[in-house]
Design goal:
Strand content: under 5%
Distance between the termini: 59 Å
Mean pLDDT: 91
Order of helices and strands: HEEHHHHHHHHHHHHHHHHHHHHH
Largest sheet: 2 strands, antiparallel
Oligomer: single chain
Low-confidence stretches: 531-536
Radius of gyration: 25 Å
Number of helices: 22
């Protein structure tokens, strides 16, 4: 039985590595050849441009060389260099994040504003936002967790003698949470590979990650959810690497469980990562005969599935009212098969309109959506070329956008945005932002590809938990190919790729690998010159 489990575990590792190698190869090639972006901030239509390969090679190569030079500078004395680099990256994030708050003047809009305003009402005791029909939450009850988070922050802000909106405080908090993301991903890189070079490279890549800093001004669920996810995954890996002592299981397992649950509460799509967590934890438990890991997997699944219904029930009891079940998932799947003015599968109002026209009857809306899915599937079967074109462009619009729609997400403003800052959103300087993000994304995908390739070639026992983040990324790829599309949704998966890119770039620069390559070439040339002598 143990031998069978071990073989299955080894097969799973190989399967994930091969799948990840193919997927990161696809990401690299498509990112190298294409760039998706929006140049009109009114329509926000996603355009696809074919990249100049010479510019891509030169730009990506320059970023790679600069990264390695910085790594060499700070890696001479790793113990001190990494601390200095960490402080510099935190300072850089705080500086740019602060400048965006002062001069970017981004304000919540659309769904972000609906959630924020509902939380603001609850913070002053107005519970009318909890209503079965006349409420944003009756359409999208999955936002109740984020609303609870905002309400707590707004209540804290109102303790201060100021008339400013609480979202200014939330943006300041998000800058801190961005630093937390960087710190725990950096700690995770060290925990996984114990490579000082990879640690330094991760910090350099994090400092270059402009969408990460741009999203610190986006008052929504992405930043706090991924901060919680980063902490949860770090402690989970600590749990995997720890011994069998009971207090260690509790010390690492409890904060991981809390943070992973919080990530789902703040952003329901984090369930994609939770599925990866549960599967990997169960396999690690079976392989290493650690039943406590099975308990953790069960608790993680239970908490993640119940946190939002429990939060909703709390607000229903508090208000004495109820919420509807909301727009059914089937409507999102149907919308993901439709054209949109912004891009294939992007939001076009179908889910909202279908639910509203069905008089907020989730079952009726699901039936309409299911009928549309069947019709669309029949059309794609009859026209496979159209299906291929549709899903290829849907894929590119999400995964070939190096900005991850950060300009569109943070476009709404209070007014009076500084002209120079505005030019990076919708003016002439936006092309520099788009171009840099595209090169950066290409470098990340290259590093990830090398990481997966070297992992397959190295003669080392494979650990499935090392590729937990990559499993989550691939799960996100599959999910958003059938769900509603948006490059913003891919942003968090892009963050999960950065640690693997740091590992891959470190292996590119590994002197031992280069020395082995040179030695093999030298041996080959020696053999070639010796053969005539032997024959003579």
């Amino acid at each position: 039985m143990r031998q069978t489990t071990s073989r299955f575990y080894h097969f799973s590792c190989k399967f994930i590595l091969i799948l990840s190698l193919l997927f990161t190869g696809l990401l690299f090639v498509s990112g190298f050849l294409f760039t998706c972006y929006a140049d009109d901030m009114v329509s926000q239509q996603v355009r696809t441009a074919v990249d100049n390969p010479f510019i891509q090679i030169a730009g990506t190569g320059l970023l790679l060389v600069l990264t390695l030079l910085c790594c060499r500078l700070f890696g001479k004395k790793p113990a001190v260099g990494k601390k200095i680099l960490l402080i510099l990256v935190f300072g850089w994030i705080a500086l740019l994040g602060g400048l965006l708050i002062l001069f970017g003047r981004t304000a919540p809009a659309a769904d972000a504003w609906s959630v924020y305003s509902a939380a603001e009402s609850l913070a002053i005791g107005d519970t009318s936002v909890i209503h079965p029909t006349d409420s944003y939450l009756s359409y999208y009850p999955q936002q109740v967790g984020l609303m609870a988070f905002f309400e707590i922050l707004i209540r804290l802000w109102k303790l201060l003698p100021t008339d400013l909106h609480a979202y200014h405080f939330i943006k300041c908090l998000y800058v801190v949470l961005t630093c937390i993301i960087v710190y725990y991903q950096y700690a995770t890189v060290h925990l996984l590979w114990e490579d000082d070079r990879a640690d330094c490279i991760y910090l350099i890549l994090a400092g270059m990650n402009l969408p990460l800093i741009m999203y610190s001004s986006f008052v929504y669920g992405e930043t706090p959810s991924f901060a919680a996810l980063s902490v949860g995954l770090y402690f989970l890996i600590k749990l995997f690497k720890s011994d069998l002592l009971k207090h260690r299981s509790l010390l690492y397992g409890l904060p991981s469980l809390i943070m992973l649950t919080l990530a789902v509460m703040l952003r329901k799509n984090s369930l994609v990562i939770i599925i990866a967590v549960v599967l990997v934890t169960a396999l690690e438990a079976l392989k290493n005969k650690r039943p406590r890991l099975l308990v953790f997997a069960a608790l993680c699944a239970a908490c993640s599935l119940t946190i939002l219904p429990a939060t909703q029930k709390f607000y229903e009891l508090r208000s004495g009212s109820t919420l509807r079940s909301g727009v059914p998932a089937m409507s999102y799947f149907a919308m993901g098969m439709q054209e949109s003015s912004r891009g294939n599968g992007w939001y076009n109002g179908f889910n909202f309109n279908t639910y509203q026209e069905s008089e907020m009857d989730a079952a009726a809306a699901a039936d309409i959506s299911r009928q549309f899915i069947n019709e669309r599937a029949d059309y794609f079967r009859e026209h496979p070329d159209k299906a291929l074109d549709f899903y290829w462009n849907k894929y590119l619009s999400q995964w070939a956008d190096g900005t991850y729609a950060s300009r569109q997400a943070t476009l709404a403003t209070l007014g009076g945005r500084h002209p120079l800052v505005e030019s990076f959103y919708s003016g002439a300087n936006s092309r520099f932002y788009i171009g840099f993000c595209n090169l950066y994304q290409t470098l990340i995908c290259l590093g990830c590809f090398v990481c997966m390739l070297t992992a397959l070639l190295r003669k080392k026992e494979l650990c499935l938990y090392e590729y937990l983040g990559m499993i989550g990324v691939f799960g996100g790829f599959l999910f958003h190919m059938i769900w509603e599309a948006n490059a913003r949704y891919i942003f968090l998966y892009g963050l999960l790729l950065v640690p693997y890119a740091a590992c891959g770039i470190s292996r590119i620069s590994n002197n031992a690998v280069l020395e082995r390559f040179r030695k093999n070439n030298t041996d080959h040339r020696s053999d070639a010159t010796e053969k005539p002598t032997t024959a003579a």
